[in-house]
Amino acid sequence: MSPIPLSVNGKAVAAEADPDTLLVTFLREHLRLTGTHVGCDTASCGACTVLVGGLAVKSCNVLLGQMAGAEITTIEGITPADGSLHPMQAAFRACHGLQCGFCTPGMIMSAIDLVTHHPHATREEVRAGLEGNLCRCTGYHNIVTAVMQAAEATRAKGGRS
Amino acid sequence: MSAARAPYIGQSVARKEDYRFVTGCGTYTDDIVLPHQAYGYFLRSPHAHAAIRSIDTAAAAAAPGVIAVYTGRDLAGIGGLPCGWLIHSIDGSPMKEPKHPVLAEGKVRHVGDPLALVVAESAREAKAAAALIDVDYDILPAVVDPASAPASGTALHTEAPDNLCFTWAIGDKAAAQAAFAKAAHVTRLSFVNNRLIPNAIEPRAANAQYSAASDSYTLYVTSQNPHVERLLMAAFVLGIPEHKLRVVAPDVGGGFGSKIYLYAEETALVWASRRVGRPIKWTAERSESFLTDAHGRDHVTTAELALDADGKFLALRVDTIANMGAYLSTFASCIPTILHATLLAGQYATPHIHCQVRAVFTNTAPVDAYRGAGRPEATYLLERIVELAARELGIDPAELRRRNFIRAFPYATPVGLTYDTGDYEATLDRALELADVAGFPARRRASEARGLRRGLGYACYIEACGIAPSNIAGKLGARAGLFEAAELRVHPTGKVTVFTGSHSHGQGHETTFAQVVADRLGIALEDVDIEHGDTGKVLFGMGTYGSRSLAVGGSAIVKAVDKVIAKGRKIAAHLLEAGEEDVQFSDGVFRVAGTDRAKTFAEVALAAYVPHNYPLATLEPGLNENAFYDPTNFTFPAGTYVCEVEVDPETGVTRIDRFTACDDFGNVVNPMIVEGQVHGGLAQGIGQALLESCHYNEDGQLLTGSFVDYAMPRADDLPDFVVETVRGTPCTHNPLGAKGCGEAGAIGSPPAVINAIVDALAPLGVRDVQMPATPYRVWQTLQQARS
Question: In the prediction, which pLDDT does B3 show?
Fold first, then answer.
């Protein structure tokens, strides 16, 4: 079995695991990137969402073997090393867009995809765009506010989040 | 000398805990990897009710990677999972308490009931081996419907031949009957309070480790109350000395009640960890969560309200059947009784109330406290029947409520509680203003012009929080105290670590409690850390549920802070060569009154740990204090919720156009966190009203066993919320004046939503809509009303 080449958070990885390993299992158990969470077994909750080539993907629903050559970004990969926060992380904190924190990494990754591809989304469109991520704590109100705030910050910088 | 600063209390301080959560650095139970850990998998019953003829584990034991296989027979020497609240029936007999075995013994009683634990080198091998266990079942008829359970002719437990756990009642039945006899009007309503599945997004998990070196255990587990878990597991089930079991509840991804209880899985893992000599980890698959997390609600109720000719409430009668599920979960028995029937006065001065509750066993998952726990059921029936009475009498529903509000405090209800304070008119008035009720008729006309029906619904809720005065709870059947504990450890530099028996699983205690301590000590917020969730660190604790953390846990912290200040005054008096009575403490400084002589809190702390100039003959060194706080009464948060919906009569689709919540939580420490708690509660209450319902078929198979089948509220199912916390009536009996805010949203919102839908459809002949008001159910109700 030859290693599967992929990139995780900007670092080249030669994955030596069964190709039928779920991507989320590979991230959590092989790379110990435990910020990506598992909340269900039906690809319904979105707690495991990561970016693959900049698009939000539920990592419980893809196999490692499908990821050859892919560029994967997890919550750890968007966190600046200097102790500061990515604009989406900062907005979630400022707007109280999280409580227990379990859905948060997946929610943030979905929100980054949303804002990147729909920088002018309305509150209603943000709600529709986050429909694949369950949160049981916040009632979503403050999550929507956070995403709107991050989108505004991103637009103000004139660039991608 | 530190300068006075604006108080933290009352400010929406950003949460201290958020950095680790937004960066993925939280440590949840499933993130913990112990050296040489093995993995557990539970074989579960596929049948709702069956006798076990035999279990053959030989093939599983021989499967690749398998370390051990255990069944109920192996665990037969240990106790069952206990129930923490003893309810007595009307005839004085104690509730039926059949054994709840950790692994099934002789019989399985619900789908998902665990029969065997397989321990293997990997989770995959453990699961594969479990499929090789051969169980010979004798399938029995399933008892599923709670209302017909007593007459079903099939008994789950020999101790309860009619499946009745207890028949309990509260209130003066004869007085209520007399009041009904002279009533000018009686409103009657029957309904089902739909069964819900809590579904914290983090599934339950545990990792249990035995140390031969110290003959002790460490359990990492998704728990809201690790000390309670330790006490129950050690003393009542496994017979382990309590000091030989450390329970750690690290970051916990939501609880909503479902992580209060002692469950079979972690108990079996602790037991087995010593047998296999390795840590054993188990994380529930979501399908297992659906089958085995304690469910909520599930009441079948008939209610009657008697009114006089002026619309004054004369009496309320309630008859409820409460589903306990297959076994009594940890606090199951107190939910439909103590936490339900005692709230039936609501905000109203109803002089006579009688409530009877029959609790039944069925072949379904155990039912226990879920966000609100009894209080949503009480509020739903009361606010629905009040709304219906208003409609029948042609009185404005807000006006009918006003006529019956309690206005003088303290107020002793006819169902055992004494409300210390409240101002129900204030929250009602403000809610009507915020919701622009005055503009409703115009909005209704605009909807009608588009072929839609618009409705407005109110709910005026009250709840009892701050559980609870231990002596009162004890008289009511509690088998535990319900105080809270705290330790304040002041370090030599004046920095402070607070150890609290409360547990945060989303509530933001690390921030709220730090605001309280920093203000009281006059130090900076960043100089205070809050530790919780580890019996090895925290002296004791009763945990977090029932919106009790600030009112009870926060009060324990305040007591510990005050002890620290009292000792600090003695130290400062010595350092300042003054009498203790002349030393005052404010803004972080001990001062001799009327002089400029002063010592900062940090200077006093240093003196306590470097006691060179110190009254050693009369005072111990160090600055570290413990406190236990036992409340003298419950707290009574209350408020008014207003829901406005638009219903499409052609499709039955309901859209919430606006939702307004106006709450009185007493004093508020962090408004942002409090609003967030209300938002979350509203989502769960609106979920109950419109989307969520747990269904078993007649064979006891769970039909709503995944997120594909059980409708969780998603972002596009919910509206933006208007939430305001009024400058309320502070709780009169705890030092913070706090009442609790965690459950209100889930308590007040279901009747507000249903009242709004009924208001929208009343012109079409609709009198009631059952929860959840899905499009199909609303459409069906409309068809029935039209025919």
Answer: 53
- Output the six-digit token pair for B776: 């199909």
Place of tokens 């009683």: B109
| Residue A159: band (very low, low, confident or very high) from pLDDT cuts 50, 70, 90 | low
Say whether pLDDT at B162 is over 90: yes
Q: Write out pLDDT tens, residues A42-61.
A: 999 999 999 999 999 999 99
Is the pLDDT confidence value at B1 over 70? no
What pTM was computed for the model? 0.97
pLDDT digits (tens, 9 = 90+) for B603-651: 999 999 999 999 999 999 999 999 999 999 999 999 999 999 999 999 9
Mutate to test the interface with A, among B11, B18, B32, B753 (most CBs of A within 10 A): B18
Tell whether B706 is within 8 A of chain A (Cβ): yes
For residues B34 and B220, give the distance between their C-alpha atoms in angstroms, rounded to a whole number.
10
Q: For the beta carbon of residue B753, count every other beta carbon within 10 angstroms.
A: 30
Interchain proximity B24–A36, CB inside 8 Å: yes
A87-94 and A104-117 helices, crossing angle to 10°: 120
Running DSSP on this structure, what letter comes out for residue B272? Answer: H
Q: By three-state DSSP, how is residue A19 classified?
A: coil
d(CA A102, CA B54): 41
Is B143:B323 a contact under the CB 8 Å cutoff? no
Contact B17 A101 (CB under 8 A): yes
Cβ neighbours around B343 below 10 Å, total: 26
- On whether the CB atoms of residues B198 and B117 are closer than 8 A, the answer is no
- Note whether A41 contacts B287, CB cutoff 8 Å: yes
Please give the torsion angle defined by the CA atoms of residues B17, B22, B23 and B29, in that order, rounded to the nearest 10 degrees. 70
CB burial of B371-394 (b: ≥16 within 10 Å; e: otherwise) equals bbbbbbbbbbbbbbbbbbbbbeee
Secondary structure element (H or E) that encloses residue B221, with its range: strand B216-221
Contact B507 A94 (CB under 8 A): no
CB-based burial label for B151 (10 Å; 0-12, 13-18, 19+): exposed
Distance CA B211, CA B34 (A): 12
Q: What is the mean pLDDT of residues A118-134?
A: 98
The answer to whether the Cβ–Cβ distance between A134 and B201 falls below 8 Å is yes
Q: Is B291 on the interface with A (CB under 8 A)?
A: no
Number of helices (H), then strands (E), belonging to chain A: the values are 6, 5
Buried b (16+ CB within 10 A) or exposed e, B204-237: bbbbbbbeeeeebbbbbbbbbbbbbbbbbbbebb
ipTM of the complex: 0.98
Bridge partners, residue B663, by sequence: B639, B725
Listed by number, the residues of chain A in 7-26 with a beta carbon closer than 8 Å to a beta carbon of chain B are none
CB contact under 8 A, B14 and A144: no
- Tell me what the mean pLDDT of segment B702-721 comes to: 98
Angstrom distance (rounded) from CA A111 to CA A92: 10
Cβ burial, residue B763 (10 Å; 0-12/13-18/19+): exposed
- B75 closest CA partner among B238, B293, B289, B290: B238
Q: Is B14 on the interface with A (CB under 8 A)?
A: yes
Between the CA of residue A148 and those of A49, A88, A120, B63, B568, what are the distances in Å? 20, 10, 9, 53, 48
Question: Stretch B358-381: mean pLDDT, rounded?
Answer: 98
Q: Please list the residues that pair with B544 across neighbouring strands.
A: none
Nearest residue to A17 (alpha-carbon basis) of A69, A71, A49, A65 = A65
Residue A127 has φ and ψ, to the nearest 5°, of -60, -45
* Rg, C-alpha atoms of chain A: 15
Half-sphere exposure of B547 (CA within 13 A, CB side): 30
Chain B hits for A33, Cβ within 8 Å:
24
Contact of B371 with chain A, judged by CB distance below 8 Å, is answered with: no
